[in-house]
Amino acid sequence: MINDEYIIVGDFYLKTIEITKEAARKYKDGFPQLSMRDFVKSEHEEDGSLIKLVSDKVFVAYAYVAKQRNSDGWILSLDEHQYINVDFYRKLFTMAQVKRTKFYYDEETNAFRFFNGSADGIGGLNIDYFAGFYVFTFENQGLYYHRELLYEAFSMAVSDAKGIYEKLQFNVQNDGLKRRHVQGEKASDVLEVKQNGMNFALHLNNGDFDFNFEERDLLLGIKEKYASQKIVLSCFSKNGAVAVAAKIGGAFKTVSIDLNSKNTSKIKENFELNNIVADKQEIRAMDITSYLDYAQKHHIMFDVIVLDPPVFVRGKKSSFSLNKDYFDLIQMALQSIKDGGTMILTANSATISMKRFKQIVADAFIDADYHYEVEDIYRAGEDFTVDKSFAKGNTFKSIIVSVSKGRK
């Protein structure tokens, strides 16, 4: 039987697996996420295995197996004659670099998404660029087994890499392996990067890889259109990027609130890099809802409120879930926004579509007896290549609304 055979493709043995006709159509139409529910027979494949998918013995795709949230792996190629080898990956990295040529020549930006998962051809892998250094993020262990081949292909395709770091999004026994330097030079202890002329500090050698790439265009909008002469509240402020953008854009004052006390020092550091006196801005490490409650009780009002929550965060007294608690968060924030003010809302999750996000916003405003007009909608920038067959991959979304009290 064909699904019991092993074939050699490039440098690997591939097991041939029969899939349903419906699955064959799905994958041929470009859907990149592998599901073992599509297999005709129950199969057990080890993480990292490369497989050949067929339907009625006709080739459909090559894929790799990896246990990942809501996925059993990813499609690699629909071309039966394409070897899955170092040259295959080299071509993908070369194409990714060509797509982002403009960013390499942008004097105002030297940090961007270089490779965006399945949209660039390899689901489960993201690569970020920081002023000559590249950070590989492996979202599953299956692909990580192929890291040496990927690094070899990358070095063939990209000649300007000063050094490479890696970040593992799956569980490993040694925490020291989750974020580490792997090749080339090490970055300076404080690596300064730019986004649209705004400066931010990273500490790659300490595992500080997290960066708000998706928000680059939104931050530019805040700086150029929404901050001038305003009092701005940034909720879930992380590294302070919103406050930096607002202050550079002429904000009268910024208030940054984040549950993580470690982010306080990041915010101050980024203020200083942009010649902003941190002591003249308000920075608090506390629960967001507690601060909003405090603001309401003390009649503190804002011209602009930015709600930029994570998918989930747990504090000492409470937790926040994007899926469960956003409605209530919006309603709390409405109590502290001036009539005619601006609310900027974000959601960075595959589980909340733009349609659902808009509905959450609408429901919260209607229930609180507030009126709003949509001023702008932002998605991730063009370095976040979009896979049209996989809408869930386009996770970041932001809605900017003007707020007035009472329905109209």
TrEMBL record:
Domain S-adenosylmethionine-dependent methyltransferase: 160-354
Cross-referenced InterPro entries: PUA-like_sf, PUA_sf, RlmI-like_PUA, SAM-dep_methyl-trfase, SAM-dependent_MTases_sf
Protein name (Swiss-Prot/TrEMBL): AdoMet-dependent methyltransferase
Example GO molecular function: methyltransferase activity
UniProtKB keywords: Methyltransferase, S-adenosyl-L-methionine, Transferase
Residue span(s) of domain RlmI-like PUA: 17-77
Keyword Lipid metabolism: no
Lineage: Bacteria, Bacillati, Bacillota, Bacilli, Lactobacillales
GO biological process: methylation
